[in-house]
Design brief:
About 15% of the residues are buried. A five-stranded mixed sheet has the order 1-5-4-3-2. The protein is built from three helices and five strands. The protein has about 90 residues and is an alpha+beta fold. A hairpin with a 4-residue loop joins strand 3 and strand 4.
C-alpha cells in the first residue's frame, strides 16, 4: 500500500483559525496518524467516522472531529502516493 500524504487547502486553513483549539488539535492528530499509518488503516478507527459523502458532494469523504465539526477531504492516488486534500472544516448542520 502506498504511503499517504495530507495537505490542507488554504480555505480549510482559514476555517481552522476560527474553530476551537481542541477541534484543530484533533484534525492535526488525524493528519499525523494518516501520514504515519496510511489512510486505509486510519479508516478502521471508528472514532473518526470516516464516511463517503453523497449527492452534490459525491467523491468527497468526511471525518468527525466532534459532534458538530467535520473535515471534508478528497483522495487521489497513484502507485507511489495517496494524496489526501482537506478542502473544508465545517460546523455540521443537523
Amino acid at each position: 500500500m502506498p504511503p499517504s500524504k495530507v495537505i490542507i487547502a488554504a480555505t480549510a486553513e482559514k476555517q481552522l483559525v476560527k474553530v476551537p483549539y481542541f477541534i484543530r488539535d484533533k484534525l492535526y492528530q488525524w493528519v499525523e496518524r494518516v501520514e504515519e499509518f496510511g489512510i486505509n488503516e486510519i479508516r478502521r478507527i471508528k472514532g473518526f467516522h470516516d464516511e463517503p459523502l453523497v449527492g452534490t458532494r459525491n467523491g468527497q469523504r468526511s471525518i468527525r472531529l466532534n459532534r458538530s465539526y467535520r473535515a471534508i477531504y478528497i483522495e487521489t492516488s497513484s502507485q507511489e502516493l495517496i494524496l489526501i486534500k482537506i478542502i473544508e472544516v465545517t460546523n455540521h448542520e443537523y
